[in-house]
């Protein structure tokens, strides 16, 4: 079901934004290459918030051990990350960003 994330303007140009959904589930929202992306916030390798990491070339680098994931698909890209994280398609409704979950 569709869930409102945040306003598009709330997402910084450089850094991910952590958003807690109404059920308490945390996701990370990214603005990259003129588009918005969203993944689960918690790293699959440990209890790190990916929103505290950094994005480079379409990958989110975890702040704990610098493993990475593709922000489009959630696929692991760099060790020690080996399990994917969930990625959610983002649509824009006016100023609001929405994901299907
Ligand atoms: Fe994310 Fe280890 S907790 S790479």
Write the layout of secondary structure elements.
Elements: E1 2-7, E2 17-20, E3 26-32, E4 35-40, E5 54-56, E6 59-61, E7 68-70, E8 76-78, E9 87-88, E10 90-93, E11 96-100
Antiparallel strand pairs: 1-11, 2-3, 3-4, 4-9, 5-6, 6-7, 7-8, 10-11
Bound molecules: FE2/S2 (inorganic) cluster (FES).
Outline of the structure:
The protein has no helices and eleven strands. It is an all-beta fold. Strands 2-3-4-9 form a four-stranded antiparallel β-sheet, with no helix packed on it.
The biggest beta sheet is recorded as: 4 strands, antiparallel
- Count of alpha/pi helices: 0
Could you name the ranges where pLDDT drops below 50 across 5 or more consecutive residues?
none
Order of helices and strands: EEEEEEEEEEE
Shape: globular
Report helical residue fraction: under 10%
Q: C-alpha Rg, in Å?
A: 12 Å
Instruction: Write down the overall mean pLDDT.
Output: 96
Assign the structural class, choosing from mainly alpha, mainly beta, alpha/beta, alpha+beta, or little secondary structure: mainly beta
Q: Report the end-to-end length measured between terminal Cα atoms.
A: 5 Å
Q: Please report which band the strand proportion falls in: under 5%, 5-15%, 15-25%, 25-35%, 35-45% or over 45%.
A: over 45%
């Amino acid at each position: 079901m569709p869930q409102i994330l945040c306003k598009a303007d709330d997402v910084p140009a450089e850094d991910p934004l952590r958003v807690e959904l109404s059920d308490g589930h945390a996701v990370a929202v990214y603005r990259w290459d003129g588009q918005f992306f969203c993944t689960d916030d918690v790293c699959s390798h440990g209890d790190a918030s990916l929103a505290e990491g950094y994005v480079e070339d379409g990958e989110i680098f975890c702040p704990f051990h610098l493993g990475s994931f593709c922000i489009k698909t959630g696929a692991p890209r760099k060790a020690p990350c080996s399990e994917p994280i969930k990625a959610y398609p983002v649509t824009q409704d006016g100023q609001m960003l929405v994901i299907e979950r």
